């Protein structure tokens, strides 16, 4: 089976979030299921420069489609320099979106649909940037399509004034297509016309059918619930392997947890933290969606319990300042590194005692899976994929030896504070060590999920 995976980012070439990790790892996992995946990506400079054995397979007046390989992935690249050869991020620069994003990703999706008609059995589109590809296939003909929602909050909604430059199929601007309250909805069109829809966890698939989590799309989701599937994400267990991770000072396994101490000491040095007490970490975009305003309210509480906190991320200026002020109040106990550093994120997972993920909603989440893999106990909100992947340390789970973390009510600062207190109470006990080992033995790779995707692909084809 030949599948064209259409994605606006792919690890390790270009990444802004978990979409890139999924788009980079799933094709490798699907190869073991007899599925041959080619990833269709925009021609960002980082992508075109990494491409090897490139050859032009299609060409127009101001674009071409290249075929080649990069970092072990089979790629087709939509090389349109006026759209994607830019100094900045894939979606914007200096905190502002590119003003022509509608045109950029409409042309990208249209090109993907044209390629899919040429010898592919199925097109798998990821998020709003690729969501018009299923629209083209449904209205102009082509193979079946699957649309995966990584976060329904990002919808690609634009005013009707952009319609003329999108080159949509005839009839696309209708209630059954991309029309959304008089505007053009990229994600809405894909949800309406894709052959099937997936989300990145079973719980999120249920949540987005409600007004609380559906972000205005719950009506169309419920109308198409018969083709909606929740398949939890996995992680690349080779790139994230605590036994031989080059970003760690010392590798370790469930049997050699004592070796984590060297990583914690290195992490203390990196952040300028004093030793002593459980070390909590955050590796995240600093946004209220991630519940980090609730954590900022609990920093003094965390330190008062004897804990320490290391934060890696960037986002809302108010939250960056809140954690910076907390670091000023608690020197040697709280520290923040504004920005993102992939090797440092590995060291944090391999050296911190617990990772805090108090999200108000979380389609799947990957950092808790990395935490499980690295013995960094996840403390998470009971929502989306967090609820699907972390086993709460209640008395029964602790007695059975199956607990892997601490789960609390979402959107509740008091509940988060209680979860932090519970972590401090358990830290250093045999139960804590048992949680670390149970987490490290959890199935967090792609094998089971890839099998589910392969089965869904076959049912569509």
Task: Provide a compact summary of the structure.
By secondary structure, this protein is an alpha/beta fold.
CATH class annotation of the largest domain? Alpha Beta
* Beta strand count: 20
Specify the CATH homologous superfamily of the largest domain: Glycogen Phosphorylase B
The CATH topology of the largest domain is Rossmann fold
Helix content range: 25-40%
Structural class: alpha/beta
Radius of gyration: 22 Å
Q: Give the mean pLDDT.
A: 97
* Strand percent estimate: 15-25%
Strand order of the largest sheet: 3-4-5-2-1-8-9-13-14
Number of helices: 20
Tags for this entry?
461 residues; alpha/beta; Rossmann fold; 2 domains; 9-stranded mixed beta sheet; 20 strands
Describe how the helices and strands are arranged.
Layout: E1 2-6, H1 18-31, E2 36-42, H2 45-50, E3 52-59, E4 64-70, E5 73-79, H3 81-84, E6 92-93, E7 96-97, H4 101-116, E8 122-126, H5 127-130, H6 132-140, E9 145-149, E10 157-158, E11 179-180, E12 183-185, H7 186-193, E13 196-199, H8 202-207, H9 211-214, H10 218-223, E14 228-230, H11 260-271, E15 279-283, H12 292-304, E16 308-313, H13 317-329, E17 334-338, H14 342-351, E18 354-357, H15 367-373, E19 377-381, H16 384-389, H17 395-400, E20 406-408, H18 413-426, H19 430-440, H20 447-460
Parallel strand pairs: 1-2, 1-8, 2-5, 8-9, 9-13, 13-14, 15-16, 15-18, 16-17, 18-19, 19-20
Antiparallel strand pairs: 3-4, 4-5, 6-7, 10-12, 11-12
Helix pairs in contact: 4-6, 6-7, 11-14, 12-13, 12-18
